[in-house]
Amino acid sequence: MKLSPGDRVAILSPAFAAPAAGPAIHEQAMRRLTAATGLVPVEYPTTRRLDATPADRAADLNAAFADPSIRAVLATIGGDDQVTVIPHLDDRVLAANPKPFLGYSDNTNLLTHLWSLGVPGYYGGSTQVHLGPGPGVDDIHLASLRAALLDGGKLELTEPGESEDYGRMWDDPRALSEHGVREATTAWDWAGPARRVAGRTWGGCLEVLDQIAIAGRFPSLEEFAGTILLLETSEELPPADWVGRWIRALGERGILAAVAGVLVARPPVSNFVVNPDAGERARLRAAQRDVAITTIAAYNPDAVVCVGVPFGHTRPQWIVPYGGTMTLDGSARKVFADYD
Predict the structure, then answer these.
(1) How far is Cα 50 from Cα 16, in angstroms, rounded to an integer?
(2) SS3 assignment, position 317
């Protein structure tokens, strides 16, 4: 059941407590969330606590899911250690009180765990990155946020025509009113047969999926049959050969052969430290695109593949279903997401 204006939503930091590092950005994000949706943000003890223990962060998640007045849970940002939070979760509470969780990056851990309990969520929606900074909330982000939480429906994912890999530093006053450096985007690339496939989504950030696999927390192979696989990379900027190895490992596990389609995000290729020129940025994205298409085809030439969609570590960002349904139309070259 969708939310209504006035409903309460938990704002949590299951990984890094970004609001403590950028409080002005966080406060602006909370005001914008309420203005755009009418929802009431509710913070928990670790939302702004740096270095909170995994057990304490899990306690906030358990409490938010157990509270019937909390209708959804939004992550402030990702991080790098959420894999240590998962063992402290109360699965009985999570499964008995299903509600949408929005997050990406390191939140792949929690989304995958909820998926295994039959609780769908949404991949995307960092309050600290996509709601708080800049002059306002990007149109596609707001449309998918409202669809996920309030309106439901089926949306066609479109290309906004511009993208930034990163914004301004949170302690820079301009971060509250200016975007980062944005550049024009290119058309998405399609591979595989020209047919239409639809399925339940699973996947996430490749740098996190390897941790989940090593920890022994992947779903069984049978659960991947007919799914739409979501793949993306982070601001750590893994090179194309690393991406190829991760995707190859998914193939060796049998996952690629089982899926109906693969949606690969537009990858970030620059950050606050690494700033290649426009030509090199294009080359890096093309290299990652090529290795993804080639590796997937080696294991499943019948999979419909679309590369370059703005979800994950990019802005503007589409929030997409995780455990919900997405459709890849290889004939019409269109992507649809079902938010009901």
Answers:
(1) 7
(2) coil
The DSSP call for residue 58 is H
Could you read off the pLDDT of 179-203 as tens digits, one per residue? 999 999 999 999 999 999 999 999 9
> Which residue's entry shows tokens 């306002």?
136
Q: Give tens-digit pLDDT for 217-241.
A: 999 999 999 999 999 999 999 999 9
Tell me how far apart the alpha carbons of residues 263 and 167 are, in angstroms, rounded to a whole number. Answer: 24
Distance CA 338, CA 324 (A): 7
Task: Read off the pLDDT of residues 52-86 as tens digits, 9 standing for 90 and up.
Answer: 999 999 999 999 999 999 999 999 999 999 999 99
What is the sign of the dihedral through the CA atoms of 308, 313, 316 and 317? positive
Closest C-alpha among 252, 243, 230 to residue 287: 243
Which single residue is written with the structure tokens 């609780």? 119
Please state, in angstroms and rounded to a whole number, the distance separating the CA atoms of residues 325 and 41. 27
Q: Name the pLDDT band for 330 (thresholds 50, 70, 90).
A: very high
CA 232 – CA 79 distance, rounded (Å):
15
Side chain identity at residue 90, one-letter code: D
Whole-angstrom distance, CA of residue 6 vs CA of residue 151: 14
How far apart, in whole angstroms, are the C-alpha atoms of residue 273 and residue 79? 18
Beta bridge partners of 230: 203, 263
217 phi and psi angles, rounded to 5 deg: -115, 20
**Residue 102's closest CA among 66, 63, 83, 130?**
130
Helices 108-116, 206-214: crossing angle, 10 deg rounding: 50
Asked whether 98 and 119 are in contact (CB, 8 A), the reply is yes
DSSP for 68-82, written as a single string: TTEEEEEES---S-G
Per-residue pLDDT tens digits for 109-155:
999 999 999 999 999 999 999 999 999 999 999 999 999 999 999 99
